Amino acid sequence: MKRILRPELLDSLPPDSPAARHSRRDLRRLDRFLGNTRWFVQTVPPLARPGETALELGAGEGRLALALRVAGLPTDALDQFPAPPGWPADTRWHTADLRAFPRWADYPVVVGNLILHHFPDESLAALGARLDAHARVLVFNEPLRHPRAALLWRLGAPLGGANHVTRHDGRVSIDAGFRDAELPAALGLSESRWSWRIENTFLGTQRFVATRRP
Length: 214
Prior knowledge:
This protein is about 35% helix and about 20% strand. The protein is built from 7 helices and 7 strands; from the N terminus they run H-H-E-H-E-E-E-H-E-H-H-H-E-E. Helix 5 packs antiparallel against helix 6. It is globular. The chain starts with 17 loop residues before the first helix and ends with a strand.
């Protein structure tokens, strides 16, 4: 069951379209149901050292970055789209494609929620080389590519009121997700330089935490 990357509908919709707004609401509800942001808030701040700033990849609406800041960890955001309205002036927002981002050295802690599965392995390898050169802590939450996850999504998404955009994109995300130790392999991380742990949740996410070895 290899990774299969296909376009997601939300990426092609105008941000203010009714379908896109509905899908973003679905994603916020899904995040609460899966406990993804809660897990990041519990996991990331204890790994950061005093004075370090984290960077959220593919920040979207920036909810994870803001939640980490509330938890006491300074966190900036990176996304290919501009900051949402009302973004705090004291929180840096980088508008750039992460594949061309030039300031990795500023961020020893890098996090991402449901972002890396959008990229093919060659792009992940290039990203991994930059992270390997500069980062100290990596924390990612990605779709788990597993038949159980696909079944739960097929049954649960309609019951949860997800619209056609969310239902389609969820299936696409699972097919592009990760299993076993595929993510560190795709990033090109070496066990001689990094220590990591991987947790597969019953509800269909893979949680990855890596720290650079001394």
